[in-house]
What does this fold into?
Amino acid sequence: MMAINDINPIAVEEVRKLMLRHMKYEINECCDCATEPYPCVGNSCFMRHVVYYQCDRCGCSGLTEDEIHEVDGEDLCDTCFDEEFEDGSL
It folds into this structure.
């Protein structure tokens, strides 16, 4: 198995840029809603895998899919998106 030091340094830098470009993370937001008639469904529960995004420009996090916009390869929050197009040129 290759170590990261064995990879071309330019390729490593490109991978890091890609990782930073699309900051998306998953959080377990279990709310302990299971009851005796309705037991916990485990990993198939939608609350166990809640996906959040981070704005590439301002860094604000905790954004849902509805609050993030992809513009020229960047994920922008509503505020940064509005600033990008405040002159009305969409």
